[in-house]
């Protein structure tokens, strides 16, 4: 076997081609791209103003919490993907089984939590979008729909990361 958390495989040279071909690395890259799309759509086109009023408001039913939630989980998911990507790079070099155990459990716990938070985010954004007046959205409707769509896709990409961590 591979020892506790793959500790028997620790050491050796880093092969970038083999590393990028690992399923968990590919899923992490996809998750990072999805989170980047969600928060970029919300930061770029999530806030609009009416011609008669210069104040900005969230495109999702004028609910600031909807935009803040989407941006918040998107940014944190992107940063977590970067962190766990770096963990994936250095993981084969870690020979201490306790450190490996805590990193795997952290990945498992974070992936599980973020799968749930993306589900909540998808439901929240979809609900607020259903209550949004068509007259308020003009041309930003596509960005709002993209944020909802990639929130939905993120549920599955983070669920896949959860499975790989398990």
UniProtKB/TrEMBL annotation:
Residues 19-166 form the MARVEL domain. The keyword Transmembrane helix applies. It comes from the Eukaryota. Coiled coil: none annotated. It is found in: Membrane. InterPro entries: Marvel, Synaptogyrin. Belongs to the synaptogyrin family. PANTHER family: SYNAPTOGYRIN, SYNAPTOGYRIN-2 LIKE PROTEIN-RELATED. This is SNG2 protein. It comes from Oxyruncus cristatus. The lineage of its organism: Eukaryota, Metazoa, Chordata, Craniata, Vertebrata. The gene is Syngr2.
């Amino acid at each position: 076997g591979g020892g506790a958390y793959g500790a028997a495989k620790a050491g050796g040279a880093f092969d970038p081609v083999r590393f990028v071909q690992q399923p968990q690395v590919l899923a992490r890259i996809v998750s990072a791209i999805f989170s980047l799309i969600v928060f970029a759509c919300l930061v770029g086109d999530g806030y609009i103003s009416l011609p008669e009023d210069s104040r900005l408001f969230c495109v999702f039913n004028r609910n600031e919490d909807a935009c803040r939630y989407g941006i918040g989980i998107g940014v944190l998911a992107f940063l977590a993907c970067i962190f766990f990507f770096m963990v994936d790079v250095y993981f084969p070099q870690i020979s201490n089984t306790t450190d490996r155990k805590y990193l795997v459990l952290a990945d498992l716990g974070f992936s599980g939590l973020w799968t749930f938070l993306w589900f909540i985010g998808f439901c929240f954004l979809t609900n607020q979008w259903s209550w949004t007046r068509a007259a308020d959205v003009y041309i930003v409707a596509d960005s709002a729909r993209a944020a909802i769509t990639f929130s939905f896709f993120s549920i599955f990409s983070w669920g896949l990361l959860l499975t790989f961590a398990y």
